[in-house]
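User: Fold this; C-alpha cells only.

Assistant: Input:
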Amino acid sequence: QWSRNGVPVSTANELQTSPAIAFIPETGNTYVFYPVSNTGQTAWGLSAQMFNAGGERQWSDNGVVLAGLSSQQQYLVHAYPQPDSTAVVLYLEYIPGSAVNARLKAIKLDAAGTMVWGISPTVLAGVVSEKGHLAASLRPNGTVVAVWYDGRNGNPDIYLQNINPDCSFGAPPATINPTVEITAPIDNSVVPLPPS
C-alpha cells in the first residue's frame, strides 16, 4: 500500500532503472515501465507494473516482462495514459551488437498487463541508425507524438512520428462528432443545430 518512503515496484533479483509512469485518473491505476538488467549488466530488458489506487502491485511481485533479457538495451523510456484506461510506453532499443544504432518502439498495455497491439512491440522508426534525445507528447485523443535526433543521413537530423491509439500512423482515425437536437415543447418540432 501507499506508504511513506515508497512502495517497491518489483522484487525481482535484477537491476531496475529509469522508470516512466502513466496515471489513469478514471481508475486511479498507475502504470510503471522500467528498463532492467542482470546484476552483471550484460543483458537488458523492459518490464512493467501496475498499482491500483491503494498502492498495491497488480501484476505479481515481479511485474510483467515486455522485453526479456538480451543484448538489446532499452533506453529513454516514456509512458502515456490512454483514453481507454490503457497506457503506451515508448522507448529506443539498440540493435543486436550495437550501443549506437537503434530503433524506436512502442507497446500498449491494458489493465491486465496484456499487450494490446499484438505480441511484439510496434516499430515506429525501423531505420537502423544512431538515435537519441527522445522526447514525446500526448494529444487529447491519445495519439502519442515522438521526436528524436537521428543520424541516418550522416549528420544528425530531427525526426517526428506519431502513433494513434489503434496502432496506426498518420492522421488519427475519423471520429463521429456528437450531435444535439432540441425538441420544442410547444409544437414538438425538432430543431437541428448547425454543424460546428
